[in-house]
Amino acid sequence: MKSQKKILILCGGKFAFKALQKLAFENFLCGIGIGKSSSLVIEALETESENNNLAFKSFPNKKSISEMKSWIEKLKPDFIFSISFPFLIPEDVLSYGKEKFINFHPGPLPQYRGPMPIFEVLKNQEKSTAISVHFMDSKYDQGPIIFKDPLKIEQNDTYGKLAIKLSDHTAQVALNMANMIQYAEKIPSSIQESKDAYFYEKPEFSDTCIKWKNMTADEIIALINSCNPWNIGADTSFEGEQIKIIAASLYNKPHQNLNPGTITSITEDGNISVACSDDQQVSIEILKTDMGIITAKQFNFQANILGKKFK
Fold this sequence. Notes:
Layout: E1 7-11, H1 17-25, E2 29-34, H2 39-51, E3 55-58, H3 68-75, E4 79-83, H4 91-94, E5 101-105, H5 117-123, E6 128-135, E7 145-152, H6 159-183, H7 205-208, H8 217-226, E8 234-238, E9 241-251, E10 263-266, E11 272-275, E12 281-289, E13 292-295, H9 296-299
Parallel strand pairs: 1-2, 1-4, 2-3, 4-5
Antiparallel strand pairs: 5-6, 6-7, 8-9, 9-12, 10-11, 11-12, 12-13
Helix pairs in contact: 1-6, 5-8
């Protein structure tokens, strides 16, 4: 009988918690390394590691990665799994062993390389996403693909909802991968197709800002969902005030070619209907303003709101 493989997890926070639990329960886990994260998350993982006799180390910044090689060599894991680890692993660390570093990327590769594929697939209105499992090299998300496990995107998924589903899905995928390395003599993989590859940088303000003049209603709703909750919603402005729209839905009535961004009506539920570029409307439900996070009905208390514009 083969001895149990020892797996070290490099992670970035809560997204990896379910996978950590599954691998620990099945006795694969030998240690946890965490990149920059909140002090509460770091303390919780360190405590759990101590309670379960697991090695633990925090890597709060890029400079601290210089300590990783000696730490790994001391632990001697059979494989290192990376789940949302925030830093690029340098070649001198990867030299610990060919095909020993395996990344679990929460998006389809090579089409959605980059740090936030959940945001990008929602913004682009994809119908499905995937956990892409691949060997790591010295470049982000470019190593050979081992397999991709698809996941359907539901119509009302927000960034937060999809992240939770992907976290759960990653846990099972990581356990499947652990079982594969436990019993397989060789792990099959294939080189990524460069013609399909695209790297998305971390979103900036221009990526999260609603462009009322040229975005359709569906595109605006997709952007709002992709920004909730990590950016507290999609960015816009109203009467000179910076505002974030947190929740909205399609209001299926034409607006007869009003200027996009114009507030056309208040619905029976107190929501705010706004004209879009495609003669459709969005119904705004929740916003963040200088008053705080409020409902559209609370926002409606402003005088003479009809006919005014979001920009």
